[in-house]
């Protein structure tokens, strides 16, 4: 084999997504959408090269020419390798200035979006990972797509237990918020009883390290908080969050959502189960004989309408719309919980 043929063989091996159709003229497809036409008149030298990228999904097909052959080929080679290695989908625009990798191993929820910062380096402009805290620096500097993707997948593997715990809560609890699953969120608000709700927040890299906020009548949540704090020492690191919470509160299961929300309770003010933001009523007064619950926004507006209502250090004080018992709440804190 001549030196010239050997060089061409190595070139095609390095870039398996292209093929030679004429002397020193190559074509190929990337991501099932983009057609490349590469002309190398001085091959194996890359001088005087011409690369055309055609977007086959536009009518008529658009063409972008870029003489930076080595950089373009390096990027495209990386993308083809990433598709095979991580079983993901790759989306690129016709100018190769933005990339999106998604469906990692068939997972519809996770994605990584990149914008080109230099010839071969990209900056991460969006991703589906949660905030890992100030001690973990992710995607701080421009890098090759391969480097960003490797870091993304490595973190994703470290978050398997975190996502498993959240998925168990989603499946086995009545999650009142968030109304739609978002992979960047680290918390769930679940129903404990008719008037008591728990906000459970997990640390992504330490899923057994959780924070629990209690929402409901003062006497009830104080008893639950005391029970929770008293049994934290018995937390079993080999069990998931759901199982540990059942053990702490000495219950067989948490309430679960019915498909048609047949057991849904309406707000005592607007008479609707879900408000304009899709939230359910979770605020109640301390009167054990008063069974009504209210949307946070509805109760906040009710307090504002009362002449005798007052606010001290963000704590609003007023009366229940029905039983007239005094009621105090930090609506701003509750709104931050959602």
Description:
The protein has a five-stranded antiparallel sheet with strand order 1-2-3-4-5, with helices on one face. A four-stranded antiparallel sheet has the order 6-7-8-9, covered by helices on one side. It has a four-stranded antiparallel sheet with strand order 10-11-12-13. Helix content is 29%, strand content 25%. It is of the alpha+beta class. 26% of the residues are buried. It has eight helices and 16 strands.
Based on secondary structure, the structural category is alpha+beta
**Main sheet, how many strands, which sense, barrel?**
5 strands, antiparallel
Terminal CA distance reads 69 Å
**What are the segments in which pLDDT stays under 50 over at least 5 consecutive residues?**
59-63
Annotation field: number of helices: 8
Instruction: Record the strand order, biggest sheet.
Output: 1-2-3-4-5
Shape: elongated
Q: How much of the residues is beta strand, in percent?
A: 25-35%
Order of helices and strands: HEEEEEHEEEEHHEEEEHHHEEEH
How many E-type strands?
A: 16
Estimate the mean pLDDT confidence.
Answer: 79
- Rounded to an integer, what's the Rg over CA atoms? 29 Å
The percent of residues in helical segments reads 25-40%
Summarize the structure.
Helix content is 29%, strand content 25%. The chain is an alpha+beta fold.
């Amino acid at each position: 084999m001549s030196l010239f043929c050997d060089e061409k063989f190595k070139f095609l091996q390095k870039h398996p997504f292209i093929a030679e159709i004429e002397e020193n003229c190559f074509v190929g497809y990337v991501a099932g959408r983009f057609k490349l036409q590469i002309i190398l008149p001085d091959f194996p030298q890359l001088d005087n090269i011409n690369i055309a990228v055609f977007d086959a999904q536009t009518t008529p097909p658009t063409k972008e020419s870029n003489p930076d052959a080595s950089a373009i080929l390096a990027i495209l080679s990386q993308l083809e390798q990433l598709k095979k290695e991580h079983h993901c989908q790759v989306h690129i625009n016709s100018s190769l200035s933005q990339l999106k990798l998604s469906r990692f191993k068939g997972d519809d929820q996770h994605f990584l979006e990149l914008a080109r910062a230099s010839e071969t380096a990209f900056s991460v402009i969006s991703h589906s990972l949660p905030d890992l805290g100030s001690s973990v620096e992710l995607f701080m500097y421009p890098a090759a797509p391969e480097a960003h993707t490797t870091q993304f997948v490595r973190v994703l593997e470290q978050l398997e237990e975190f996502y498993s715990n959240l998925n168990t809560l989603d499946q086995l609890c009545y999650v009142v918020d968030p109304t739609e699953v978002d992979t960047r969120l680290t918390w769930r608000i679940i129903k404990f009883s008719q008037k008591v709700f728990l906000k459970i927040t997990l640390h992504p890299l330490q899923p057994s390290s959780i924070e629990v906020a209690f929402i409901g009548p003062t006497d009830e949540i104080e008893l639950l908080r005391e029970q929770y704090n008293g049994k934290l020492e018995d937390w079993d690191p080999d069990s998931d969050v759901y199982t540990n919470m059942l053990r702490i509160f000495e219950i067989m299961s948490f309430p679960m959502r019915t498909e048609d929300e047949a057991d849904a309770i309406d707000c005592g003010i607007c008479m609707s189960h879900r408000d304009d933001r899709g939230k359910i009523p979770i605020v109640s007064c301390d009167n054990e004989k008063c069974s009504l619950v209210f949307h946070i926004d509805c109760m906040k507006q009710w307090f504002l309408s009362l002449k005798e209502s007052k606010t001290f250090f963000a704590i609003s004080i007023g009366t229940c719309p029905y039983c007239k018992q005094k009621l105090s709440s930090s609506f701003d804190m509750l709104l931050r919980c959602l």
